[in-house]
Design a protein that fits this description.
Layout lengths: L14 H11 L6 H6 L3 H9 L10 H14 L3 H12 L6 H8 L10 H16 L4 H8 L4 H24 L35
Length: 203
């Protein structure tokens, strides 16, 4: 897909959209995903109201690992790259962990034992839409029920975001990171777990 299927809204925005942007983006220029969602103001309002980026029951690192792995498995370079640039450093994620979130397995040495469980959870939800009993038992030994709910809802929410960015061909943000890929393959889908991954391009 070379052109977005639905073009982002452009200013001046209608009053409801402008109000939503002011409240959610704190005066910053809305990213292309938000401006695309603004083509349906009702959905934009629901989208912002359902955001899970506020302080929750899990750490920012746990949140971002789930988001990065989920969006990478969905092939959403747009959302993965935005979260790498805006949140990865804040979450304390290393370049090796960022690369492993896109390509690699839960056994990648970049991950701690608990982080491996998060990768397994994201992969299980992506591949089977459920969590096997052995994995659930391991997760429940680390996280409380309210935290497990948040992790699962995060995965579902960012599947939805990936559906939007992928299906509509939302144009990549200039500032965002790119999937590990050759320079002439900026939109290549990440390799699936177990396949070799290359150097990460954060520029």
């Amino acid at each position: 897909m070379t052109e977005p299927r639905i073009l982002p809204a452009a200013p001046p925005y209608e009053p409801a959209v402008a109000k939503a942007f002011d409240a959610f983006t704190a005066g910053r220029e809305p990213i292309k995903l938000f401006r695309t969602m603004a083509r349906n103001p009702r959905l934009l309002g629901r989208f912002f109201a359902g955001s899970l980026l506020d302080p929750g029951s899990i750490s920012i690192a746990e949140r971002e690992i789930m988001i990065l792995r989920t969006t990478a498995r969905c092939g959403s370079e747009y959302e993965w790259g935005v979260h790498v640039k805006i949140f990865a450093a804040r979450a304390g994620l290393t370049p090796a962990q960022i690369a492993a979130s896109a390509q690699g397995t839960a056994e990648d040495p970049a991950w701690s034992p608990n982080q491996r469980l998060l990768i397994r959870l994201a992969d299980a939800l992506h591949d089977t839409a459920t969590v096997p009993e052995d994995l659930w038992s391991a997760l429940a030994a680390v996280w409380r029920p309210d935290q497990l709910l948040e992790l699962i809802v995060l995965a579902g929410n960012y599947h939805m975001v990936a559906f939007v960015t992928n299906s509509l061909g939302v144009e990549l943000e200039d500032f965002a990171a790119r999937f590990p890929a050759a320079a002439d393959e900026p939109r290549r889908r990440p390799e699936l777990p177990g396949e070799k991954y290359g150097a990460l391009n954060l520029d």
